[in-house]
């Protein structure tokens, strides 16, 4: 089993994606190879019949060895062994071979497209299906590098592997034909071919090692690059970018060193290929003539087949070298895919959420590590299109509670019920489709206003009306009308072309277009100036009564009009009530108001 795993693990991997498509490709290669060999074999009697009216069949059969059945087939078909007849049969064989070659090449492209699409779909699906807690442990650079860069190496590895497989199939075909033509000579050449392969195995080993190192370094480089872009303002303002550039350039140098190694190994392989072929052929002829007392005429056809075979040995080695050069990408891609799938969220229920009527948390607790509870004994009921606010110092559990409400994490104790039933009894995706989420850093895509708000909905008349209504409710009509291309204006990367307040209003409009039944504002106004905050607050107040609203905020003005405020401390609800009630009953809340710690 270890031997099978060692030499066929890559075949098993590709077979798991492509199934019998691989077998069909191999069969097409086999047929094409044998037809090519039969056509080449007919050149021997064609040479012998030159200048004669008819070939001496006995002489031809001796030259063809076990391939004399080709001549038997011609005579069985009722034809004489003349030059014209042999030429016609030779032409027919190569025409049929050409048809099979076309089928093979065309089908190979279709299979490649199928494989690429399937593995990309699988990666995207696995990423989207991953549980949030498991996603937090992933390296963003690793994910981005694999999904954008290493995926091309996986495709290149696939192409190189199947080129290797097809070349190996044709190699076997010509070896079989050579054995049929002259068994003794074929055996001598086979030994030479095997010995040459031992040399190249060393090169393959070093190439694979360099490829794996290259992929790992690319992950680190991508991760560092993402952080550089994300923290550019800070790095630029403090001149730390000068030091950070050294770190980035060091990764670049290391990556280039591994690429250089791969290039050198490729150069050695290409330079040594042809001399080795000739050396093996010359050595085999000398052994056959000098040591085994053979004659050159008897081995001519076998020699011709083996020259073809040795070329395919070199092609196998060249393609395998290309495969090992991209093997690092295949390995890291499979590792990421395995991590994504092992961290998959359990969402097997088919019961859909029609409406969010009520959400109830009963004695809910949560921890990332059993040693420390992040939430403790949380009781909360959300219903009747009311507004709720979560306040408290940093680290009090507000964001964790929000993550729990949207189903990103699940209670480690207590009950979370939706419409009177456990949340996990529903399909989580259908629940989240009812939720709108506006964060401190507004989520804006580098696309048009329309696509940002509608999330790439089709521009139907109904969607256009919903879009207009959403921008009216979010006080965006004047902004959109004033843009150069109105709703078709591109907003730039992360909304670089608009202000912070405008970004937040677009985020609100997106959730209104979605018809969200639970709107969550996670410190959505904390980074805005007072005037813009007031405008956003008016937006929020105008939505009261139309859906359930949960606010997380530090500023007094944002939560003042909430129907119920929960003051959190150390993962627990210390007290709750309206703004006036908390101001009267809670010294902590009163102190926070006085200090403006919102």
Automatic annotation (TrEMBL):
Q: Which UniProt keywords apply?
A: ATP-binding, Cell membrane, Hydrolase, Membrane, Nucleotide-binding, Transmembrane, Transmembrane helix, Transport
**What does UniProt give as GO cellular component?**
plasma membrane
The lineage's top-level taxon is Bacteria
Gene3D superfamilies assigned:
ABC transporter type 1, transmembrane domain (1.20.1560.10), P-loop containing nucleotide triphosphate hydrolases (3.40.50.300)
Instruction: State its location(s).
Output: Cell membrane
Q: Which ranges does the record mark as transmembrane?
A: 12-35, 73-96, 158-177, 183-204
Q: Does the keyword Nucleus apply?
A: no
One term of GO molecular function: ATP hydrolysis activity
The residue ranges of the ABC transporter domain are 359-595
Q: How does it sit in the membrane?
A: Multi-pass membrane protein
Fetch the SMART domains from UniProt: AAA
The main place the protein resides is membrane
EC numbers, comma separated? 3.6.3.-
Domain ABC transmembrane type-1: residue ranges: 23-322
This chain's protein is named: Subfamily B ATP-binding cassette protein MsbA
């Amino acid at each position: 089993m270890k031997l099978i795993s060692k030499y066929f693990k890559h075949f098993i991997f590709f077979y798991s994606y492509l199934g019998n498509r691989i077998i069909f490709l191999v069969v097409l290669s086999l047929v094409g190879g044998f037809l090519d060999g039969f056509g080449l074999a007919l050149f021997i009697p064609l040479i012998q019949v030159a200048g004669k009216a008819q070939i001496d069949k006995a002489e031809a059969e001796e030259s063809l060895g076990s391939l004399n059945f080709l001549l038997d087939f011609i005579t069985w078909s009722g034809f004489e062994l003349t030059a014209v007849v042999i030429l016609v049969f030779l032409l027919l064989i190569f025409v049929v071979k050409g048809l099979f070659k076309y089928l093979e090449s065309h089908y190979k492209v279709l299979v490649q497209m199928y494989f690429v699409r399937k593995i990309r779909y699988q990666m995207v699906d696995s990423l989207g299906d991953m549980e949030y807690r498991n996603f937090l442990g992933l390296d963003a650079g690793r994910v981005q590098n694999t999904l954008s860069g290493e995926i091309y190496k996986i495709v290149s590895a696939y192409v190189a592997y199947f080129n290797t497989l097809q070349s190996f199939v044709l190699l076997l075909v010509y070896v079989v034909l050579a054995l049929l033509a002259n068994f003794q000579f074929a055996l001598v050449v086979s030994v030479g071919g095997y010995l040459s392969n031992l040399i190249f195995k060393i090169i393959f080993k070093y190439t694979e090692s360099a490829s794996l190192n290259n992929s790992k370094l690319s992950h680190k480089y991508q991760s560092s690059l993402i952080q550089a872009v994300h923290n550019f303002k800070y790095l630029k303002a403090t001149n730390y970018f000068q030091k950070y550039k050294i770190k980035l350039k060091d990764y670049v140098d290391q990556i280039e060193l591994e690429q250089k190694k791969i290039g050198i190994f490729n150069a050695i392989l290409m330079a040594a290929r042809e001399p080795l072929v000739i050396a093996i052929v010359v050595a085999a002829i000398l052994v056959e003539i000098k040591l085994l007392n053979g004659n050159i005429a008897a081995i001519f056809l076998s020699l011709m087949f083996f020259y073809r075979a040795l070329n395919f040995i070199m092609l196998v080695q060249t393609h395998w070298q290309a495969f090992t050069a991209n093997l690092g990408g295949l390995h890291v891609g499979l590792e990421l895919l395995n991590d994504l799938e092992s961290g998959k969220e359990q969402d097997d229920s088919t019961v859909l959420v029609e409406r969010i009527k009520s959400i109830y948390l009963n004695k809910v607790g949560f921890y990332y590590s059993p040693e420390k509870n992040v939430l403790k004994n949380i009781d909360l009921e959300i219903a009747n299109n009311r507004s709720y606010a979560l306040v408290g110092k940093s680290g009090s559990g507000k964001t964790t509670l929000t993550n729990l409400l949207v189903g990103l994490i699940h209670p480690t104790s207590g009950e979370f019920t939706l419409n009177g039933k456990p949340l996990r009894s529903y399909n989580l995706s259908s629940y989240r489709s009812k939720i709108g989420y506006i964060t401190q850093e507004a989520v804006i895509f580098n696309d048009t206003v329309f696509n940002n708000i509608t999330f790439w909905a089709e521009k139907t008349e109904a969607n256009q009306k919903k879009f207009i209504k959403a921008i009216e409710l979010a006080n965006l009509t004047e902004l959109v009308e004033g843009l150069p291309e109105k709703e078709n204006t591109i907003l730039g990367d992360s909304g670089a072309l608009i202000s912070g307040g405008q970004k937040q209003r677009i985020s609100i409009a997106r959730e209104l277009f979605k018809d969200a039944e639970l709107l969550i504002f996670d410190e959505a106004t904390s980074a805005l100036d007072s005037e813009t905050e007031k405008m956003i607050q008016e937006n929020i107040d105008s939505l009261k009564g139309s859906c359930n609203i949960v606010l997380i905020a530090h500023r007094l003005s944002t939560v003042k009009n909430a129907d119920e405020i929960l003051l959190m401390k150390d993962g627990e609800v210390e007290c709750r009530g309206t703004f006036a009630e908390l101001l009267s009953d809670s010294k902590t809340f009163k102190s926070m108001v006085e200090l403006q710690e919102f």
